[in-house]
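Internal ticket - ligand job 210, thymidine-5'-diphosphate:
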Amino acid sequence: MFITFEGPEGSGKTSQITLLANTLRQKGYKVFTTREPGGTLIGDQVRSILLSRMENKNMNPRAEILLFCAARAQLVDEVIRPHLAQGEVVLCDRYADSSLAYQGYGHGLDIDFLSRLLDFATGGLKPDLTLLMDIDPEVGLRRRMNSGGEWNRLDAYELAFHKRVRLGYLKMADENSDRWKVIDAGQPPEVVQTSLINVVLSQLKNFTRK
Ligand code: TYD
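stdout (structure tokens):
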């Protein structure tokens, strides 16, 4: 089963994924975790071009989307598909929906065109379940600043951009509620983790029955 995690900055996705992966492993599932952009040798090189705040300040949105797609195409073929083929649960920290949210709703690139481009990049591979870790971007960005974590080129976009990203995510979740589940990531971390585990376990049960 292919599960993706989406959300604005500072939603706590990364640490929640680590906890969830451990719980699923304890329950006997074979779990593989990866992240975007990156996750392969080629993808990690593209990641450093995309996120470098100093060198690549004037990257335009079209260059940005093509680089995200290049890293993603590599990740799908080299990593995600082979692990799914082994029957593993693949947890991916961001995927194609990040491009729709950031480059589409955030930067205003055409959503229909982007969807076709993303289909090309992924070879049509869609997640079975997408968890939206929803948080007000003001709260998320403050969290990220206070945690002293990495502050990348995209974090530095203005607040209005991040607000458009969040609304875009909520719209996608609303339009496709079969695949998307929304988690309130503003709650205490242990509450968020419990909600995540409950949603994922119930979906995994249904999934194996198919
Ligand atoms: P990262 O440090 O991995 O952020 P996070 O912990 O929030 O996931 O940086 C990834 C950044 O790239 C993040 O700002 C979201 C952005 N992004 C896009 O704009 N489009 C995409 O397709 C992807 C995968 C990420």
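Auto-summary: The mean pLDDT is 94. The pocket of thymidine-5'-diphosphate is lined by residues 9, 13-14, 36-37, 51, 68, 93-94, 98-99, 102-103, 150, 152, 154-155 (CB under 6 Å).
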